[in-house]
Amino acid sequence: MSAPTSYSHQLTVRYYEVDSQGIVFNMWYLGYADVALAGYFASVGLTFDRFIELDLDIHVVKSEVTYRAPLRLDDTVDISVRDVTIGRTSLTFDLVFHLDGEPTTEVRIVYVAHRPSDGKKIEVPSSVRTALGAATDF
């Protein structure tokens, strides 16, 4: 199942995230994406506490960052969760960063579901599919 979403998270670039070139150091983009996805999960009722109740965790197995334009100190960026694809055991999220309405960065992150109690890979639970499906239906 794949569908667009309407979730967006806003953040402002801080001093310690900028390198000697005056732009955001590359590794911060994955951190920004993680913050946006945590907000997205919470917005659909999938808080960290809910993950614990479900005996569920997700691990990053692949991440891609495509840089279109740099972000600089004090820039306020909007990070949109553009698309969610739910596989049998995986969740793929496509995010787009916008500065003043212009795209600057695209991030794709693939997670695999696993059960913390025994460390085994599992299918994405139906309750997670339902929560994410409800968030992606217009």
UniProtKB/TrEMBL annotation:
Segments forming a coiled coil: none
Any Pfam family hit: 4HBT
Residues in Thioesterase domain copies: 21-101
Superkingdom of origin organism: Bacteria
UniProtKB keywords: Hydrolase
GO molecular function: fatty acyl-CoA hydrolase activity
Protein family membership: Belongs to the 4-hydroxybenzoyl-CoA thioesterase family.
UniProt name for this protein: Thioesterase domain-containing protein
Organism in which the protein naturally occurs: Gordonia soli NBRC 108243
